[in-house]
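REVIEWER CHECKLIST
Item 1: Sequence provided? yes
Item 2: Single chain? yes
Item 3: Sequence as submitted:
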Amino acid sequence: MGKAAALRARLANYFSPQVPDKTRYFLTKARSLETLVCRSEYEAFMLEYTLIKEHRPPFNIVFRDDKRYPYIKITTGDFPRIILTRSLENDGAVYFGPYVSGSNVRRILDMVHRFFKIRTCKRRLVEGKKNPPLCLQYHIKRCDGPCELLVSRAAYGEQVAQAGRFLRGEYAALLVDLRARMAAASADKSYELAALYRDQIAAVGELSEKQRAASVRADDSDAVAFASDANRGRVCFYVFKIRKGHITGNAGFVFPVAVDSGPEALARFLAEYYKTRMDLPREILVTILPEGHASLGRWLSDRGHPLRFRVPQRGYSRDLIALAEKNALARLYERADPDSEKLLDAVREKLLLTRRPECIHGFDVANLGISIVTGARVVFLQGVPAKSLYRSFGLQELEDKDDYAAMSELVARSVRRAVQKESASLPDLLLIDGGLGHVRAARKGLSLLAAARLTTPKLLRGPDPSAGSAPPVPQAARPAFEIVGLAKEHETVILEDGTRIHLKKSDPVLRLLQRVRDEAHRFSRRLMSIRHKKRSLRSG
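Item 4: Structure as written out by the authors:
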């Protein structure tokens, strides 16, 4: 799906001798062309964005990170709370974020509660109505006790307003306000209150110095840069957030996507990144202008104030975007272990895979007769277990002990979840605990997903023996899910076409496969054991 002001020129680009391999492969699969006429470029941009989100076409770049990033939320009510949340709601509250690190959010919240004395309790407090008793936070001087009406709604609201300025990075205005309050408290001989303001000034000043950037521009802006590696099929976008001349945040996002067009990829990322942000900048600094930057800027401006894109050529802004590029490149390779990359290259070579298996999903089925059948999926990223992505599945009770049907259901449910909810960890290789029958059962499960249109058919399609001498598939467009089995007998690797590969017991490739298989075996029996204990307790 795409948009074009001149359709003839856009189509001519597809047949240029310099087109990327991905486009050349895409043309071998194209069968027809449909067009929709729009009244303006802006309308075309909106329609394209909506259709791509709805249909997720396999040859369009779609950046979706399944993490639910944390936000800081100032709730509504007479005595608001300031809390961490991972969901945005249209409830009238004020949100800050998203933040990349949950630990950083908790550190910020600790400072907010400690220095601005914002309540942490979940009581529903209303002005003029007591809700005792006082909790520990009051006694350790981290709350002023609104539950016992020890602080007025107006005074508490001032504390929340100060915390809001702190979260927005408005340090200069906040410091002026705090110094005036400290002087007034000292003049009234309220030395304990003055000491509190002194501590707040010190904390804000320290944080301000850590984030200070001597900017020649006072406008709020973001700097966005990216780096990609076509061989690894990865791209990283890095964002610096500048508010009131200070770098108040930074974030890096790595996606398993090969990039052919930099402007197109940048436009897709910016649309996804800024669609949920509450604090849009007035200017976005970029290395290159995103595709359709005028329409994209207008779309973002409709959510608040005017916004523009700029490619800086000199000065501080250029230094800032260069720093963002450097960080994007570092983040892209920061987890790359040379030894693990050599091992994964060896896996690709010896198992005749089409790409390096940076993400391996291992599957195993465990059963206790036909009454309890469970399955498990384990995930290895760069050859290392990613235990946060492990999943257990309670499989349907089967009429007889049918391991193949259980494996088919397990793979179908797991891959459906990965495609719909965990796109950042889509598998390059599916490792099945079993022989050729289990491998074919796994492929059958993927075929059922494709037939039901629950995910993209091209991601699920296996090798086509009738393809003959078809042109080689470029890495960015090859089937994402390749399947092999590891049979316990003689520890033989089974490919989908029935080929058997015998590896030496000391081969690091075999050891990695055994580790994935054994981890899936262990994890599948964990859920089976839990269910067996529950059933035993009920029957007892």
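Item 5: Key structural point noted by reviewer: Residues 29 and 243 are 47 Å apart (CA to CA).
Item 6: Recommendation: ____
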